Structure to design on (283 residues):
């Protein structure tokens, strides 16, 4: 393209002729164009969900549903135990075993009681039959009483908001799952290459 | 002011007030105002971030009787 043509396309003001002014003009136009491009860009996020417990199901669904509410393109790649979060029958548990930071607090009763932490030693928690069910029931009760959404609710909200749910095909084969066990809203069953090609273009990538 | 839609998000925790606000705004016309009432203290900063990201205007953010009230004008 010659200079005359460039000058015709340079916008309302004529393109300067001397070199220094030309460079300043170019810098300014470049900044303007980059700012336009930045403003027009839809941010995107690609998450990897690898955990299948109730507590670890929250971060991917909270972040993805919120990203979608902000107008972002959001997708979650579910792999290994993360596939539990795509099951039709969501029976996620939470365990204090191997999870020493988990507070053990009463979900009901007066406020002074709810604030008391009652740590249960792992030796005890690991050997008491039904302790995991008990801890899960307590956590579910706490979540409800604090106005925090259930995982099922957050998953539905994510789907409604257009979050792309992608499952790991290898995990399905590895654990001999049947695809019928999973919700029909799973967009596709893919592998690492598909995740990476989506992650490459994403502004935010998190492994959860 | 002209008709303001109200969203009662009291008792709901993060990220529900934001998700409900987004849903309400989806059903509104550009220039209309949404009033969100919440009790989640995190929603004060989150509502600012939400409006910055979505281009909607946060007209006001105030506290009354333990509730937080936000006025958002749809872009």
């Amino acid at each position: 393209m010659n200079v005359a043509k460039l000058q015709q396309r340079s916008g309302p003001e004529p393109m300067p002729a001397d070199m220094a002014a030309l460079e300043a003009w170019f810098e300014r136009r470049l900044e303007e164009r980059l700012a336009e491009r930045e403003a027009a860009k839809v941010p995107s996020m690609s998450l990897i969900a690898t955990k299948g417990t109730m507590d670890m199901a929250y971060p991917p669904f909270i972040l993805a549903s919120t990203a979608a509410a902000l107008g972002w393109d959001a997708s979650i790649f579910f792999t290994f135990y993360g596939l539990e979060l795509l099951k039709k029958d969501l029976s996620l548990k939470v365990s204090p075993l191997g999870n020493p930071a988990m507070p053990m607090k009463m979900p009901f009763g007066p406020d002074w009681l709810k604030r008391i932490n009652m740590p249960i030693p792992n030796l005890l928690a690991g050997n008491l039959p039904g302790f995991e069910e008990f801890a899960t029931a307590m956590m579910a009760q706490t979540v409800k009483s604090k106005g925090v959404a259930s995982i099922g609710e957050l998953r539905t909200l994510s789907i409604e908001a257009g979050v792309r749910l992608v499952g790991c095909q290898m995990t399905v084969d590895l654990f001999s799952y049947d695809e019928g066990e999973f919700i029909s809203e799973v967009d596709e069953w893919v592998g690492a290459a598909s995740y990476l090609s989506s992650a490459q273009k994403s502004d935010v990538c998190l492994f959860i | 002011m002209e008709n303001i839609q109200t969203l009662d998000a009291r008792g709901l925790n993060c990220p529900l007030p934001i998700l409900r606000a987004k849903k309400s705004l989806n059903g509104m016309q550009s220039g209309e105002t949404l009033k969100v009432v919440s009790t989640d203290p995190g929603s004060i900063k989150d509502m600012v971030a939400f409006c910055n990201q979505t281009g909607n205007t946060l007209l006001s953010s105030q506290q009354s009787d333990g509730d937080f009230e936000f006025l958002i004008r749809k872009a």
Observations:
- The interface with chain A takes residues 11-16, 18-19, 21-22, 39-40, 50, 53-54 of chain B (CB under 8 Å).
